[in-house]
Design goal:
single chain, Arc Repressor Mutant, subunit A, Tetracycline Repressor, domain 2, 3% strand, elongated
């Protein structure tokens, strides 16, 4: 690492540049393990391989770090869901299944992000919540549109579109609280289970066939 000389003439390591992914990964690791109140900016800086003072060059507070990672992970999830439903065409059932499978894929690929997104959002206040909510709205819209179109077509039997959407999203969210990478079920089997539960929630018949082996 490059060195700089301070006013006393002593040599010290130059601050390490922090790239976006390094901050996100470090913050998610610490926040997932200790929670917002249990985590410290010093621990996040250490996990990112930089100094606390250098971290503060980029973020003014722990709340700013939390907002940064939640917006990023929320946008990543929404992008994945929107791309997945576009790929399957107009079928409401196909879109709903694709959204669930994409959500499961996100949790498997980014378990820390999933946990932090559910448990730590409540610690954002005021304007810090706006961008995160916007990304959550995108995710909810994917489910809402598929369920509404399925209900209109007589494929789903739901009393209230909004309640059905929230139930489906909550069911997907909940996987992050119990998923373990070393579990007995394969990713495909996990996705099959979640799809079956969501399709049961919207009272769809028939349900998609299993793809897990």
């Amino acid at each position: 690492m490059d060195e700089q000389v301070d006013k006393s003439g002593r040599r010290r390591a130059a601050p390490r540049f922090i790239d976006r992914e390094t901050v996100i990964d470090a913050a998610l690791e610490v926040l997932a393990a200790k929670g917002f109140h249990g985590a410290s900016t010093r621990e996040i800086a250490k996990a990112a391989g930089t100094s606390l003072s250098n971290l503060y060059n980029y973020f003014g507070s722990k709340s700013e770090i939390l907002e940064f990672v939640l917006v990023d992970t929320g946008r990543t999830l929404a992008d994945m869901l929107e791309e997945a439903v576009r790929a399957v065409g107009e079928s409401p059932a196909g879109r709903l299944e694709a959204a669930v499978r994409a959500y499961v894929g996100f949790i498997i690929a980014r378990p820390h992000a999933s946990v932090v997104g559910i448990t730590e959002f409540r610690y954002l206040e005021g304007e810090n919540r706006a961008d995160v909510v916007a990304q959550r709205d995108r995710t909810e819209a994917v489910f809402r549109d598929a369920i509404a179109d399925g209900a209109d077509a007589g494929l789903f039997d739901v009393r209230n579109i909004g309640s059905a959407m929230r139930g489906a999203v909550t069911l997907c969210n909940s996987m992050s609280t119990w998923y373990r990478p070393d579990g007995e079920l394969s990713p495909a089997e996990l996705a099959d289970i979640q799809v079956d539960l969501v399709f049961g929630l919207v009272r769809a018949a028939p349900r998609p066939e299993s793809t897990g082996r």
